[in-house]
C-alpha cells in the first residue's frame, strides 16, 4: 500500500490558515489506500524569538525523513529583514539542493487581472534555485563608515546551469507549444550571461523540436504585461526568476493563486512546496487569506510524488471554484471546504 | 549671449531618425539668443565594423568638450551582444560618472496602457548608474568546460550610494507628494542591502518632510502593475533600476514615450540624454519610430542645462500631441514636425 510521509511547516502569519486548507484538500483528494502521515514543524518567528534558532542540524535531519515538505509562509516584521529568509527558507533550498524552482502562471477564467483585455496566460517559469546572486557570497569592509564597500557575488556553474536548463527543455518538450525562452542579461552580466547562453544553446541541440528564444530580463518584464501569451516555458537565474515570477503572479490573478515548488528532481532530498505569497501579517488570523495558492502548491506536490490524476483534480477544482465564485466574499475556511468538496466529488 | 554646445550621437537603427526629430524640436524651442552648436559622432555598429572601435580615448576627450550629449540608440544584431553596450554605452556612463540615471514615468492622457482602468501614473525612478552589478567585475574559470564557474560581482560603496540617495531625496522633496521609495532586495542581498538601507535611513533624517518606504524589487514589480499610483520617486540600484524602468515604461505608454537622462549632477562631465528604447533594427529607416521618447529626453536635457521653461514647453507639447493624435498613423517626421510647431507656437 502507498503512503506519503509529509513534513508540514505552517510558519508565520497566514501560513497557519492556508496550510490547514491545503491539508484539508490533500486529505480529500487522496485515494483511500494512500496512507498520509504528517509531522508539523514550528519554524518561523515564534521559534526564533523563543530559541534564537531558525533551522538546526537536527531539524534538517528530521525534515530529510519525509517524502515532501508543505510550507505556508515564513516571515514577520518582528524579525529583522533577512534573518528567517536566509536562516530558514534559502538555507533549506540550498541544503536540499532545490535547483528547480517551478512557478506556473495561468490566468484562469473568471479571475481578475490588472491587464486590460483579459489576455491568454499559461506559462511556467523554471527558476534556478541554488546559485546566482543568492549564494550569500559577498561582504562588506569599513562597514558603517563613509568608506564602506559592500559586494554581492553571483556564482554560476556549468553544472548548476546545465541541470536546470535541461529540466526546462524537458518541460517545454512535454507541453503542446514546445517553446523555451531564456531570460538573462547577457549584454551586461557577460560572464554569467555567456555561461547561461552557451549552455542553453548547447542543450537546445538535443531538443530540436523545442523552439527557443532569448530575452533580456528588462525586455521580459515588458512582454509580461504587453504580450504574456508569447511565453510557454521560461528558464532563468535565481534573482531574475524571483523578480519575474512575482510580476507573472500579479498579471495572472495575483499572489492569491500563485503556487510554487522547490524541487530536487533527483529525489535525493525532499522537495518543498509553498505559495509564492508571504506571511501577510496584516491580515493574519482573520480568515481573509486565499488558500488557493497553497492548495495549488499541494497539486504540484502530488504531481512531483507521482499522483498526476489527483494533482489534475485539484487544479480543475480550483479553476471551477474561481470561475464560479462571482463577487462572493468567502473566508479562508470556506474556500478550503468548497475545494475539498470539489476534489472529493 | 547663451550657447549650447551639444554632442549628437544618432547611433544605430531608428536612432538616426529619432535624433533628427529631437534636434528639430530643440531648434524650434530654443530662444533666438541661444546659440546651438552641434557636433555629430558616428559611434555604433557601422563604426565598429569599419574600425573595430567602440569609443576611443580621443572620442572621450572630444565628447568632454560639450555641454551635453544627445544619444539615439546603440546596438545592432550584427554585433555580438554586449560589445557595444559595454564598449560604448556603459563605458560612457562610467567614465562620465553618470551616477543619476533619471527615468520619469507618466501616463499621459490619451495614451494606451496595457493596464486596465487607465490608472494614474506619475513617478520618477532615480537609478544608480555607476555601481552595482554593472561594474564588469567578475570572471570565469574553466570557461566552456563542464567545470566552468562564472561570477559577477556587484560593487556598492557608501560614497556611490549616498550621493544618489541624496539626489533622490532632493527630487522627492521638490515634488508635491514628497514620497520616496527605496527598492532593493535586502532580505537576500544582505551586504549591499544593508548598505543601501542604512544610508537611506540616515539621509532620511535630513529630509523629515519626505515620506519614505521600502519595497523588495519583486514586490515593486507587483505594485507597478496593480497600484502604480502609489509611487512618487523611487531610488534603486543599477540592475533593479534597469528592470523596473522597462516595466514602468511599458505600463505608462510604452517605450515610445520613455525618456531618460544619464546625469552627472556635479557638471564635471557632460550628461547624456537618450530614449529608453533601443535601436529597433526591424523598423529602422521606415519612418515608423515614435520620436516622442527622444524629444522628451531633449526636455530632460534642457532642464539639466537650466532651460526649465523650454523643457516644460516640450513636455506640454508632447502631452497635447498625444491627447490629440487619435488613431492617426503618422511618420516619425510628421510627429517631429507637429511637435516643432507646437513648441514654437
Ligand atoms: C522570501 C525571499 C527570500 C524569497 C526569494 O527571494 O526567493 C521569495 O521572494 C520567493 O520568491 O520565494
Ligand atoms: C543596453 C543596456 C546595457 C542598458 C542597460 O542595461 O542599462 C539598457 O537596457 C538601458 O536600460 O539603458
| Helix content estimate of chain A | 40-55%
Q: Separation of termini of chain A?
A: 23 Å
Bound molecules: 3-isopropylmalic acid
- Give the strand order, joined by hyphens, for the main sheet of chain A: 2-1-3-12-11-4-5-10-8-9
- The tally of structural domains of chain A comes to 2
Order of helix and strand elements from N to C terminus of chain A: EHEHHEHEEEEHEHEHEHEEHHH
Subunit structure (chains A, B): Homodimer.
Cofactor (chains A, B): Mn(2+); Mg(2+)
Organism (chains A, B): Streptomyces mauvecolor
Subcellular location (chains A, B): Cytoplasm
Give a quick rundown of the structure:
The structure is a homodimer of 345-residue chains. With 345 residues, chain A is an alpha/beta fold.
Task: Explain this structure.
In chain A, the strands form two sheets. Chain A has a ten-stranded mixed beta sheet with strand order 2-1-3-12-11-4-5-10-8-9, sandwiched between helices. The mean pLDDT of chain A is 97. The first copy, chain A, folds into two domains: 1-86 and 264-345, Isopropylmalate Dehydrogenase (3-Layer(aba) Sandwich), CATH 3.40.718.10; 113-252, Isopropylmalate Dehydrogenase (3-Layer(aba) Sandwich), CATH 3.40.718.10. Chain A contains eleven helices and twelve strands. In chain A, helix 1 (15-29) packs across helix 9, helix 7 runs parallel beside helix 8 (238-251) and helix 10 (308-324) packs across helix 11. Chain A is of the alpha/beta class and 345 residues long. The interface between A and B is large, with 67 and 67 residues. One 3-isopropylmalic acid sits between chains B (85, 89-90, 242) and A (187-188, 218).
